[in-house]
UniProtKB/TrEMBL annotation:
InterPro entries: Emycin_Estase, Hydrolase/PRTase-associated, PRTase-like, PRTase_dom. GO terms for biological process: response to antibiotic. This is Phosphoribosyltransferase domain-containing protein. Pfam families: Erythro_esteras, Pribosyltran. It comes from the Bacteria. Gene3D superfamilies: 3.40.50.2020, Biosynthetic Protein domain, EreA-like (biosynthetic domain), EreA-like, domain 2. Residues 14-60 form the Phosphoribosyltransferase domain. It comes from Mycobacterium kansasii.
Length: 563
């Protein structure tokens, strides 16, 4: 300490802080022992106020200091708190020479008038491309997409009308103008495949609403809503025209793995039609899952993880291998249509296998189960691409993915990467490189369809204005209503989007009372996405079945004063 003080002061006397406000900063606090010592030493100089400001500290330490000094600013309070360095992407220590140089730099004196540098919001506004309703011009989409085979389009909530509408409009353009032949959604495989049959003129459903009725699991509104219904109707009509002309049809598929029990039923149903003996084997194996309530994978996972019920891992693997061994003969025997149905059955068996692992892992840690889910999505996407590419007489398949920003964005550009968390967007980038594009959608304020608890009723909730320091706040400051910004198109956008900021993520539950803790995490947007579409004010997505609670909506916090 004596050595450093001598080096850093370089003969300069201590500052006179009597009667002044002093801000004590550190790269973070753990126990806070060194900060306590600094506060005690500083009090002898009789400052008017002492403020502590740190980027990271345990909540308990921040609360303790709140009773000691005049003000405390803790930018983040990770839970659990492991070490200060865990809160940084770059925690390299500064050298003594760097400290000396910074301390020697004048911070007061004669000011030099320089032209004011443009703010980050001004830079973004100057390069932003208007996107009415969230839909960029065709030439912008052409420049952004290029020859990419996989385009992931996100959303910062699962209940915003404009996100769904913009995504549907962009997808129509991708299908019509760029030859995309599949939509792969953050939806369960069997429920989405029912929609796939409908849009291809197959199955028994006579309307889009009926085709979407398979989405019964919470949150049903995520896919049973007016925007998806209208898109499904459009896709069916489009496919009908192309079918009549011998053109390629576009399908609708699911990437998720929550359909443990439904997928077992679909495997058995397929085998009942093509191989009754194999169906009997499947029934025997999948009977293992009957020890828990129907269609409740979480109950199975809990029982298996804690020894309250059997693990069905072996049976799930055996059935997958058994089915894979015979699939080729089924397809060869029954023709092209059977190829699709055989693929559908195989993916159901794969979903059972992966869901079994996922539900058991659910009780061992959030990161593990999250990674298993996104790895399953990536695996399903790979399998779908391979299936659609199986014939040589058609162009290479191109797929658009619909999922939440938290899946679409690259985890390596967010704080969750430090915990070892993966995302679908990251896995796609690593596998497909420049053949992929990640697009995020966000908003500043408005309303959203969300529940207050898991399994709760869909409500129309007021979305609070985005927090200061967030990417949404920055984009709001541009004063533009709806626009696209992309460093790929305009490199000038890279610098303001490379700054680490908060990013909002509203899933199917919205808890405004704990907005910061529940819905924000740190992101570096320039690396998280290839482009962002910001729609400043948005409204709630309309479910196909609206409740009185949704229709009534949420009373704004300022009611009735309007202040």
């Amino acid at each position: 300490m004596v050595r450093r003080e001598a080096i850093y002061r370089a003969g300069r006397p201590p500052l006179d802080v009597a009667g002044k406000t002093v801000i004590l900063v550190d790269d973070g606090l753990a126990t806070g022992a060194s900060m306590f010592a600094a506060v005690q030493a500083l009090r002898e100089a009789e400052p008017e106020q002492i403020v502590i400001a740190v980027p990271a500290a345990p909540e308990s330490t921040c609360r303790e200091f709140a009773g000691v000094v005049d003000d405390v600013v803790c930018a983040s309070m990770p839970t659990p708190f492991l070490a200060v360095g865990e809160s940084f992407w770059d925690f390299r220590q500064v050298t003594d020479e760097e400290v000396r140089r910074l301390l020697a730099t004048p911070t007061s004196g004669i000011s030099v008038i320089r032209p004011a540098a443009p703010t980050a919001a001004e830079v973004i506004s100057s390069v932003a491309i208007d996107a009415p309703g969230g839909v960029p011009p065709s030439e912008t989409l052409e420049e952004l997409i290029g020859d990419a085979r996989i385009v992931l389009i996100g959303e910062s909530s699962h209940g915003t009308h404009e996100f769904y509408a913009a995504r549907a409009a962009i997808t129509k353009w991708l299908i019509e103008e760029k030859g995309f032949c599949a939509v792969a959604a953050e939806a369960d495989w069997p429920d989405a495949y029912r929609v796939n049959r409908y849009v291809r003129g197959l199955g028994e459903d006579r309307s889009a609403a009926a085709a979407l009725s398979g989405f019964e699991r919470f949150p049903a509104w995520m896919w049973r809503n007016v925007v998806v219904r209208d898109f499904v109707d459009w896709l069916r009509a489009r496919n009908q025209r192309h079918r009549a002309n011998g053109g390629r049809q576009a399908g609708f598929y699911g990437l998720d793995l929550y359909s443990l029990h439904r997928s077992t039923h679909e495997v058995i149903s397929f085998l009942d039609k093509v191989d009754p003996t194999a169906a009997a084997r499947a029934r025997s194996r999948y009977a293992c899952f009957d020890h828990t309530s129907a269609d409740d994978g979480q109950a199975y996972g809990y029982a298996a993880a804690f020894g309250a019920g059997p693990s069905c891992e072996r049976q799930a693997i055996e059935q997958l291998v058994d089915l894979q061994r015979h699939l080729l003969s089924y397809a060869r025997r029954d023709g092209l249509l059977a190829e699709d149905e055989a693929f559908y059955a195989q993916q159901n068996a794969q979903t059972v296998r992966n869901a079994e692992v996922y539900y058991r892992a659910m009780f061992s840690g959030r990161v593990t189960s999250w990674n298993l889910r996104d790895q399953h999505m990536a695996q399903t996407l790979d399998a779908l691409l391979k299936h659609l590419d199986r014939h040589d007489n058609v162009p290479p398949a191109r797929i658009v993915v619909w999922a939440h920003n938290s899946h679409v964005g690259d985890a390596r550009a967010t704080e969750v990467w430090a915990d070892g968390q993966l995302t679908l967007g990251q896995l796609v980038r690593q596998r497909y490189g420049d053949e992929s594009r990640l697009i995020g959608l966000c908003t500043y304020s408005g309303t959203v369809t969300a529940a207050s608890e898991w399994g709760g009723i869909a409500e129309r909730k007021v979305v609070r204005p985005a927090l200061n320091g967030s990417i949404e706040q920055l984009l709001h400051e541009t004063g533009r209503n709806a626009f696209l910004v992309s460093p790929q198109i305009t490199p000038e956008a890279a610098d303001p989007l490379s700054v680490v900021r908060l990013g909002r993520a509203i899933g199917v539950i919205y808890l405004p009372a704990t907005e910061r803790q529940s819905h924000y995490f740190h992101v570096r947007p320039a690396d998280q996405f290839d482009a962002m579409i910001h729609i400043d004010k948005t409204r709630a997505l309309e479910p196909l079945e609206t409740t009185s609670l949704w229709i009534a909506g949420e009373t704004p916090e300022t009611y009735p004063s309007g202040l």
